[in-house]
Amino acid sequence: MRRAVIWTLLIVFAWPVALIVWIVKYPDQAKNVWRTIRDHVRAHPALFLWGGFGLGVLGVIIGVTALDPGMTAFYCVWAAVFGSLLVRRQLKARAVAAAEIAARADAQHAAYLAGDDFGVYGTRDMPNI
């Protein structure tokens, strides 16, 4: 019972100390937890970015309602960072899609010039040149 009370107080009031004690006492479990978190973020980057952006927006709303300019500024920066990462990820995805379309068009053009009549839109219509 006493041990449970001590751990409860550590977690409630001094969670950084409890975290450090846990990491030192159980290093293998700590490595597995961090590895699991890292793998989840790598597997679902958009979910992580949307979560960070949502947390930033929520922090801005709470900061504005609490009239706390420091908190509002911090979460504005937080939301801006995650929002810019979301925009950059979307732009990168669009660039990859455009590059795939351009590569397919180049391949079809090269096939057509090489005499493959299926090189353009999968038809046998060869224009008279």
Protein traits:
single chain; 129 residues; mainly alpha; 2 domains; 5 helices; elongated; transmembrane; transmembrane helix
Count of helical regions: 5
Q: What is the radius of gyration? A: 27 Å
Fraction in helix? over 70%
Described by its quaternary structure, the protein is single chain
The first-to-last residue Cα distance is 91 Å
Name the overall outline.
elongated
What can you see in these coordinates?
The protein is mainly alpha-helical. It has 2 domains: 1-43, no CATH class; 45-129. 82% of the residues lie in helices and 0% in strands. The chain has helices at 2-13, 15-25, 27-43, 45-65, 69-113. Helix 1 crosses helix 2 (15-25), helix 2 packs across helix 3 and helix 4 (45-65) runs antiparallel to helix 5.
Give a short synopsis of this structure:
This protein is 82% helix and 0% strand. The chain has 129 residues and is mainly α. The chain folds into 2 domains: 43 residues, no CATH class; 85 residues.
List the helices and strands and how they pair.
Layout: H1 2-13, H2 15-25, H3 27-43, H4 45-65, H5 69-113
Helix pairs in contact: 1-2, 2-3, 4-5
